[in-house]
Each structure stands twice: as C-alpha cells, then as structure tokens.
Amino acid sequence: FDDISLEKWSIINEDHDRRYNYMTTNLSEAARKILKGAQKFSIIALAKCIYSILIGYFIKDGLKRVYSLTPVGKCYAFDNEGGSQAPNSSLLHRGFHDLCCNTHFENVYGMPAYQYMEKNAELNSIFCKAMAHSNSLQLKRVLKLYKGFEGVSTLVDVGGGVGETLKQIISAYPSIKGINFDLPQKIQKAPSHPGIEHIGGDMFQSVPNGDAILLKQVCHNWVDEDCIKLLRNCHKALPPHGKVIVLDLVIPEVPNSSNVFKRFCAIDNLMFLAHGGKERTENEFENLCKSSGFTKFHVVASSEITTTIGVIEFYK
C-alpha cells in the first residue's frame, strides 16, 4: 500500500451501465490511514479496515466507483495470454544496490548471472517465466509491424528459453518450422509445442542451421566481442542470402529528454550492472553486422518508433 504502487491506479465512475471519464485520486492519505494501525490488526481485521476506508473514499452520492489500471499498471498485470512485466521487473534489481565493481551481479551473488542461474533451478525457472511474460507483450507489437517472417521455412531462435517466442511467431506463420536453441538446463524445462524442436547447446560454440536466425534481446547481454563471436556462428549456420533478425532496443544516437529515452537509459544501466552488457545505437549495431561478416544491414523499426524493442536485419 505504499504511495508509489497506489498511484499506479486510477478510478472510473460507473452509474448503472454509464461510464464516465477517467479521473485520478491521490491515494496517499488512504494508504497512510491503512498503515497507521496495521500492526494492531489481524489479516481479517486489516482487510475490513481497508474495505471501510476505500468505501469512505470512493462511494458517495450514489455512484459506484471501481478500480482500473493505468497504462503503466497494465504492464504489471497478467493479460489474457499470460503476458506481464511483473516477474521480470524484480528479477535483477539487486545489481543497482552495489556500484563499486565492474561486475555488479557477480559482486552481489558471487558469480555471473547466467552461471548463477545454472546452479539455481528455482531462479532459472523464474527467469524463464519472466522472459516469457515480457516477451509476449513485446512480440505482439513486433508481429503487427514486421512482415519479415513471411517466406521463412526454418527459424532458429537463439536464446529462446522455453520456446514462447517461437510459439507466438508460429501461431502467426504456421508454415515455419521452429528450432528453439538455448542452454541444456533451460531446454529441459521447455514444454512441447507443435512445429517447434528444442535443441540444447552453447551459442558461442555453434548455432543450428536455418534460413533465418532470431536474436531477441540477446545482444544487449554481451559486450561487442562476445556479440561478434555469436554473430559469426550465426553467419556459418545460414545459407546464402539468409538473415539474422535482431529484436533489441535501438537507442537514439543523440540523447534527449523524452520519457522514452529515460526508460532506455534505465534499461541500459540495468544491462551493464547485471551482465556487463549494454543497449546499442543503430551505428553500433551496424558495426557488429560488418565485423561479423554480414553484407547488408537494415533497420526495419527503431525503438523510438515502437517505444519498445526495435527490429534489425543482418543479411549474409
């Protein structure tokens, strides 16, 4: 009931079946009243207290007032298809708490992030679910604007987790054969999906063959040298004129004061703190493309247009 979480909600007036305009109410005072005597109450008594205070605040003049999530709040609630940012948002936050070293996650947990998850089955399960939930939200927007999956026969999703990304893509393009490629311990948890083959391995050693390879939010985990090594393996796995589809933030070359750019900066900081990685500009992605042997670079959509992950193609 802290102020921050309560201020993510708005109120809708409803009188019978008539809906009025949205209006927001400062809930801080309500939160303080609730918390003031919370320690004295049992759970049931506290629930009754919350109910009575909210009734006092939000029902008067014969109007029924109910809650509705704001656009920001909706990102943290699960939608009909199970998409949510909530599991992902709290996963790696502890890296922000200690800024004295270059490998901040390792400083907090004693080892790099992915190695830590290899040794912690419960966290690995949480991570896979977190990626699946956030991916669902982002991929909906990508599939609306990007038509580059048309004509693809075999699509390899490198770092695909439990296969949720491929599942969404194949539901839109049923003719695609999907290969979900990730570390063996992640593949072991992957459920069966029609049209998807799960393969375990190390992307820095080799990548399964396909006429298109998907890298969704993979590059931002790694420094340039590691990205180039991965992309060269992708290059080897592609036929002539095959392509890598990169879904990642494409941040502006010149900083600005927009809220979208501030969000990009926060994510960039998180990737640095958690993995030593970074978000990249269009020019930085083009340098990766050329350094790994690809001949053509095409930005389909920048993150400024989508307000989320951008879409880039590297052609062999």
Automatic annotation (TrEMBL):
Name of the protein this chain belongs to: Isoliquiritigenin 2'-O-methyltransferase
Domain O-methyltransferase C-terminal: 101-294
Transmembrane segments: 41-59
GO biological process, one term: methylation
Keywords from the named record: Membrane, Methyltransferase, S-adenosyl-L-methionine, Transferase, Transmembrane, Transmembrane helix
Pfam families named in the record: Methyltransf_2
GO function terms (MF aspect): O-methyltransferase activity
